[in-house]
Design brief:
The chain is an alpha/beta fold and about 500 residues long. The chain is built from 19 helices and 15 strands.
Length: about 500
């Protein structure tokens, strides 16, 4: 099954930001495009807006004047749905209301030919439900573009329960012909991206509610240690708190209020107060001319220890050993009493530094400071530390000085299980493993979707493979013990993955 022929007109119903963006993508790809909006005059206004964007592309050298003129000649505002007859594809981008979309597609069935592909750009509704009343639901598919559609490459191609495989393939190949990167998804709440991304927001909100750290510090740690392009608080301010919370609630309700997807009361209060983010001038942060940027907590300079002892293997944090030695600090290597016990760094004062693993530092019998996970300890510019209550100020200062000697800024946060990056990444890996096991999407599509759809530094499955499923499983089991609500209960898919990795190691030994 090949992509839709360029001679075949594409119709876009709904001329808001997303509708205009999709129309521009199809137009630049070479299709005739027909625009329709239920509000009279909106389609013509959209044509003017798209023309303006094409003009700017010419000014930036991204489009030739000839191609712009040809594109403008191919776009037509439609006065009624009847004007969409003869289209090979109709993409809907109207209100996120099930009954509105259902009525629209029922009306379209009366107009278009039987071989016309029908697609919804919904991000939160069931593709199966939207197609439910149709006489021919086999030709119905989800084409979920990401905003802004002309710039972001990802398109989720969603097959509803009744979608014919040939229709899904044609939609997939058409998106690819338009220069997009399509991924296939089953019709599950949130599809791929909005399902698997929930912990990125939810864990940050949970940490804030537990007073582990302020939003600016949580954002900074996830950016500068975790490698994410934006922190969850600044990202939800950009998206809009009302929109982000609505997606969270939709996914939670669609999963019959599964505790893994529970929304945040703190975010609900933000929405109720109409602090919606950038668009309202106030969200987690304040916006406007002259408003200072919120700064993360950063520890004051402290002297570094002259020597440390590394006991056992640091595994996911092994790069720290080379960094410490390279900083001029003497490193002694000691064998642990129990080889199965996680390795640690011991400072001259006797305090031990462990990689965050889902447990609380206060659970340990000796003075312990947890340090957070980093995407790349060599490249990370910030590290978070969480001291147990038994740790003295002098011992904490010694740990701060150690990481500062490695060129890192240090944020001291409250002792919460799993800290910030570790618990977030562990949850993302688990959600991704579970999605693949349930047939939501293939492993490659999952990682591609998360890298391109939400700009993660690494696909969660690739990240989990690097960290080891055993570490992820242990982290979540500790979290599940600390919070026995079901929120952190590891998926069966993760357990199977960890068991398979353990068996492979034993076989190689």
């Amino acid at each position: 099954m090949t992509a839709l022929d360029l001679s075949s007109p594409v119709a876009v119903v709904g001329t808001g930001t997303m509708g205009q963006g999709i129309a521009q993508v199809a137009l630049v790809a070479g299709h005739p495009v027909r625009l329709y909006d239920a509000v009279r005059g909106r389609a013509r206004e959209a044509v003017v807006a798209i023309t303006g964007r094409l003009d700017r592309l010419v000014e930036k050298g991204r489009l030739t004047a000839g191609d712009r003129d040809a594109a403008i000649a191919r776009i037509t505002p439609a006065e009624s749905l009847a004007d969409l007859a003869g289209c090979g594809l109709v993409v809907e981008a109207v209100l996120e209301q099930l009954d509105v979309k259902q009525r629209l597609f029922q009306d379209l069935e009366e107009v278009v030919a039987e071989d016309c592909l029908l697609a919804t750009n919904t991000s939160s509704l069931s593709v199966t439900a939207v197609a439910g009343p149709l006489a021919h639901p086999g030709r119905f598919v989800g084409l979920h573009f990401f905003n802004p559609a002309p710039l972001l490459p990802l398109v989720e191609v969603v097959s509803g329960f009744a979608t014919d495989g040939k229709a899904a393939t044609r939609a997939y190949e058409t998106a690819r012909a338009w220069g997009k990167t399509p991924v296939r998804s089953a019709d599950t709440p949130g599809f791929i991206v909005n399902r698997i991304a929930r912990p990125f927001y939810a864990e940050a909100l949970r940490l804030y509610e537990e007073r582990a750290a302020d939003p600016a510090t949580i954002d900074a740690v996830l950016r500068e240690s975790g490698g994410f392009k934006m922190g969850p608080f600044e990202l939800t301010d950009l998206i809009g708190q009302d929109i982000n919370e609505a997606v969270t609630r939709s996914v939670w309700d669609s999963f019959f209020q599964d505790p893994k997807f529970t929304p945040s009361l703190a975010q609900r209060r933000l929405v109720e107060s109409r602090r919606l983010g950038r668009k309202s001038g106030q969200g987690w942060y304040a916006y406007g001319d002259g408003v200072p940027r919120a700064e993360p907590h950063t520890a004051a300079p402290a002297p570094a220890p002259e020597s440390v002892a590394v006991c056992g293997e640091l595994h996911q944090a092994s790069a720290l050993v080379e960094l410490i030695a390279g900083s001029g600090i003497e490193v002694a290597h000691e064998e642990p009493i129990d080889p199965d016990y996680p390795g640690w760094i011991e400072l001259p004062s006797g305090v031990r530094l462990f990689l965050a693993d889902g447990s609380a530092a206060d659970d340990a019998s000796a003075p312990v400071i947890h340090f957070d996970l980093a995407l790349d300890y060599k490249a990370a510019t910030r590290i978070a530390l969480a001291p147990a209550v038994t740790v003295s100020e002098e011992q904490l200062g010694e740990a701060v000085g150690l990481f500062q000697a490695l060129g890192k800024r240090v944020s001291v946060v409250a002792d919460v299980p799993g800290m910030i990056v570790a618990r977030t990444v562990a949850m993302l890996v688990d959600y991704a493993q579970d999605a693949v096991a349930r047939g939501v999407a293939g492993p490659e599509d999952v990682d591609t979707a998360m890298r391109l759809g939400v700009n993660y530094p690494r696909g969660p499955l690739a990240w989990g493979a690097e960290l080891g499923a055993g570490w992820v499983l242990d982290t979540l089991e500790y979290l599940h013990e600390e919070y026995p609500t079901g929120r952190y209960a590891p998926s069966q898919a993760l357990r199977r993955r960890a068991a398979a990795e353990s068996a492979a190691r034993e076989e190689d030994a």
